[in-house]
Predict the 3D structure of the following.
Amino acid sequence: MIKILKRYRLFFQEKYFIHFTIIFLIALCFNIDNKTIIAAAFAYLLLSVYILKSLSKGLIFTFLLFNLFSVGKTFEFILIPLSSLYYGHWIQGYQGYEDFIILGPSFFIGLLIAIWSIYSYLRNTISLDKYTKIFLVFLLLSFISALISLNPRISIVYWIYFALLLPFFLLLRKEVVNNKNFITDLLNFFSILVVYEGIWALFQYITKSSLFPSLVFFHNILIEGTDLSQNWFRPWGTFNHPNDLANFLLPLTIAFFLHGFLKQTINNKFIIPGFIFGLTGILLSLSRSSWLVLFLVTLPLTFIFEKKYRLSFDWEYMKVIFCTIILFIPIGIFLVLPRLQKSDITFAEGGSGLFRINQLSESVNLVMKYPLFGVGQGMSVLGMFLENPKGEMYYFPTPSHNMYLNLAEEIGLVPFFFFFVFLFSLLSQKIKPAGNKLLNNTIQGNIFLSSLISILLNGLFQPVYSTTMLYLLIFATLYNYAQK
């Protein structure tokens, strides 16, 4: 490998890092199995460190990239047997409500980040302020939830994933504060990930398949409900559900769109493709909550930027958006409008709206019974089922479609409280940046805040997904830095 690096050393330069990532993502489509994707993660890490000349940045980018993939060493647990469920008599090959513990590339990279963060702390290059200590209290309390869980083995693994967010946060904040170009590099990197997922979703829709089986966990998504057409195909990218895909794309697509008000950053050639393919993925996912939040966040912010700050949207970007809208007219006619029309029966018998209302009632009851520390991470469905074996979980076992209730019933109100104290304390605390006045301004701060708000709003209609907690921390950190 050293000989290869020396031979092509002109390509392995920091200015070509994004191009290297694009080539790597394309090559990743030829992945063979779980072992090779873990090997690929470590290869990407080594090459990233070599190119960026920074272990911290290499770890951060590798963790973010492989957080897209839910594949790896998998352990299967049947929490509710098939015979106890309504559809147990007519779905072939289904074993019941299952939970899957996946030890994938992001898990092992996260462990390396934890080791590096501890080493950096011992060398006094990373410090623990009072806000970080609040997060430590949250982790301690949520560990109690895992220990007294309905299934401690599963919950403790989920807790470890929670715990790995802290060293990632410390490393991210260190780079944001000390590296004046890091936010620009991060936005470039995010745009490539969004384009990748958007293209993946587009080809999934065209081929009506999962595309590359070795990179996705679920190869088929079951569509149910009177307000869903069985002719619709909802792509899910590399995630586990179409709503999971939309939840990832939503805050980043909003950020890319609103950057049209910043002339100095819109010249970035990766931002516009990020917006186009992010919007493509959100539309194809048929996630109505993401459509709604996209509209509710971008419209007021556009008005504020134009009226309060007297900003004008970049004209070249506007022309691209106009052309994109024209191209998306067929999607609107054949997908968006029928999906919206079906919404009028969402509260009819068998509709998803009626199911969610009934499910929220069961979730509240579960929180009331286990208020302090919940039923354990990943145990909300089992908890609701045990409380009411013939309730909503009997017909359709799925986590609560509300991030706040989902968290409260699993970890309890006490850890829940400390997590949001940490989050909002971080938003109110300003970090003194080391230069880069271009990024340290109110406009970009509002852009990052709008992305964070989109996650919080979408959480009113969706459970905690694979990227929810991670990107809450990321956008809180970026907003924190951008404030004057």
